[in-house]
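Progress report, Aim 2. The chain analyzed during this reporting quarter is listed below.
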Amino acid sequence: MQVADIMTRNVLFARGEHSFTQMVRLFFELNVHHLPVLDGNGQLVGMVSAADALEAYSYHLRDFTDASDGEVNRWIKVEEIMTSDPIT
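Predicted structure tokens for the chain:
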């Protein structure tokens, strides 16, 4: 068996400029647990998981006064929680 036999061909991805809440919606609406993160040139710059998102949200929960999308997005950035430079 080769990687090509089991890999996902139409890969969903996030961009570093996506908001945290946009990324979380992708996890829930599309029932995925990991997303590659691409830069503006379409190059892979990181990987982010639903567990990364939950950990970041939990860590910053005490900082939120109303936990609106805008406030959450100001505190948590995709670029800050992703694993940078993944091995491919």
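The longest helix spans residues 20-30. The CA atoms of residues 11 and 36 lie 8 Å apart. These observations will guide the mutagenesis work planned for the next reporting period.
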